[in-house]
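agent> step 3/5: call structure_predict on target 'Acid stress chaperone HdeB' (Bradyrhizobium forestalis).
agent> reason: downstream docking stage needs a structural representation; sequence fetched in step 2, passing through unchanged.
tool.input:
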Amino acid sequence: MEILMKTMLSILFAAALSLSSMPAHAVKWDLSTMSCKQFLESGEDNIAVVLTWMDGWYKGDEDNAIIDTDVFIANAKKFGSYCGKNPTVSVVTAADEILGK
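tool.output (status=ok):
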């Protein structure tokens, strides 16, 4: 699990760089059907996109354009740990459990 946490942290720091270099072709993900296992195996770029989506989605309008990296990293750790223990759960279910929409 510690390796997973270190991987998640490195992904978060790489996210800013990797998001700007993503290809322009359209991809659709149904996160309600994506399992935690699929998420964890989807690659750094996809993980970064999903974590960024979750951060914005679960904040709603309350925090506007503020990104608290300490909170972001703490939530990513919780999410990674939860998904590691529950590989068959959907990403949305995991996010609801961790971030409580």
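agent> step 4/5: record observation. The CA atoms of residues 54 and 95 lie 7 Å apart.
agent> proceeding.
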